[in-house]
Amino acid sequence: MKCLLCLQEKNKLVGSIPPSVEWLAGQPEKYSIYDCEKCGTRFADPLGILDYEFVFQQTDLYASHLEFARTLKRQDDPSWALIGLGQPYYAVFDFLKGKQELDVLDVGCSYGYLPYVLRQMGHKAYGIDIAAMPIHFAYGLFGNFYFTASIKEFVKANPDTKFNLITAIEVLEHLIEPMNFIKDCLTAVIDGGSLLITTPNRDYKELSEQRATSNKDVLWIMEKPPVHTAVYNRKSMEYIAKETGTKLSFTEFPGLAERSGALNMAA
After folding, report:
1. In this structure, is the dihedral angle defined by the CA atoms of residues 20, 25, 26 and 29, taken in order, positive or negative?
2. Which of 57, 86, 237, 255 has the most other CB atoms within 10 Å of its CB?
3. 38 Cβ neighbours under 8 A, 6+ residues apart
4. Are 231 and 202 in contact (CB under 8 A)?
5. In angstroms, rounded to a whole number, what is the distance separating the alpha carbons of residues 264 and 199?
């Protein structure tokens, strides 16, 4: 079985887990879980392309995100409200300290709250998502700076459009071709610009211990397949940086992003 990230074929089978949700038709009773010694990625098999248009219609999965988006414009300080939604957003605001009027693209923007908040801060931010349903919502509530597209489709349609910053907040773990995704993102970053990624960190010991206590299962620290396809660590990010020729830095927030298992990368 090939590693999702580095495509190495010989990987260690470490166990199996049941699917994340029961209402998805055609999925196996169990997903096999593999570890890649080359790049540190843990990934699931088998995998197909998940229909996120259908997923967004299942409001039990993203109900809290939808409700948050509906109330965001009523918040006195939208940026602090966004941080309250999830610790990975700390990485974005930490990166933006001292920076003004950046061109930003949020890839996998869901209901569009991050581009809205960044625009409130004075940045020229846009959002894209492969699912039309959340984009339609964001367009109607926040403004006409959202588009239904994958990063590959967006780049192809806008080859001359470049950004100071591209963000992908908790997106990487959903993908079946993560390296292609990252390379597509980097083509839309200006020289000297940044790609900022957050994704759950499989090396975060405390989170694994908490899961072991509550679930008796440390194979998978997040949403089970097919919603999440892989879980990464520092070694994975170092592999990505090497393969793409980018400079890598990590942003950690003791007691906050660490507790959520988030690993943040700006390349």
Report:
1. positive
2. 237
3. 3, 6, 8, 239
4. yes
5. 7
Q: Which two tokens stand for residue 50?
A: 């998940």
Question: Residue 75 contacts by C-beta under 8 Å, 6 or more apart in sequence?
Answer: 81
Separation of alpha carbons 56 and 54, rounded Å: 6
Band (110; pLDDT cuts 50, 70, 90):
very high
**Residues 5 and 39 sit within 8 Å (Cβ to Cβ):** yes
Q: Between 259 and 14, where is the model more confident?
A: 14
Within 13 A of 31's CA, how many CA atoms are on the CB side?
Answer: 26
Pairing status of strand 249-251 against strand 262-266: antiparallel
- Tens-digit pLDDT profile for residues 214-229: 555 568 878 889 889 9
Tens of pLDDT, residues 35-58: 999 999 999 999 877 888 888 887
CA distance 213 to 210: 5
> What is the four-CA torsion angle of 18, 108, 119, 195, rounded to 10 degrees?
100
Q: 63 CB contacts (<8 Å, ≥6 apart)? A: none
The pTM of this model reads 0.91
| Token digits of residue 42 | 């843990």
Report the distance separating Cα 197 and Cα 24, nearest Å.
28
Mean pLDDT of 27-41: 93
Alpha helices in the chain (DSSP H): 52-57, 59-71, 78-85, 89-95, 113-120, 132-142, 151-157, 178-187, 205-215, 234-244, 257-260
Give the per-residue pLDDT at 262: 46
| Lookup: tokens for 136 | 């339609």
Contact at 8 Å (CB) between 227 and 47? no
